[in-house]
């Protein structure tokens, strides 16, 4: 679900700005998911494209591969529907999955980014008992 190598590379690259940028991902993602759900309710293929594109790009930046692929599918299908002037009812199941996958991805990011997780992994108890939070 998450490519932790990409997540770690992004975290290293962003340095002290990581938590702030991850917060932007959360805020933008909440807005994008809501806009996608709204566009589907409005039966508007065109209104699906930009928020799905935004969510896809940001998800991939943090390594949320499944989320990025689902958002990409919504985006590309919506673009096709715009071209053939079709409404997006076919995307209902993908849009329903999107919110859950977004929330699951955020929970995974929060668990990994939480400073207490790193301390627990490096604690003497972890070394002695082989306990891990992952």
TrEMBL record:
Cited Gene3D superfamilies: HPT domain
Domain annotation HPt: ranges: 14-109
Pfam family, one: Hpt
Keyword NAD assigned: no
Protein name (Swiss-Prot/TrEMBL): Histidine phosphotransferase
Annotated GO biological process: phosphorelay signal transduction system
Superkingdom classification of source: Bacteria
InterPro entries per the UniProt record, alphabetical: HPT_dom_sf, Sig_transdc_His_kin_Hpt_dom
Residue positions, PTM Phosphohistidine: 53
One function term, GO molecular function aspect: protein kinase activity
Keywords noted in UniProt: Phosphoprotein, Transferase, Two-component regulatory system
Record bears the keyword RNA-binding: no
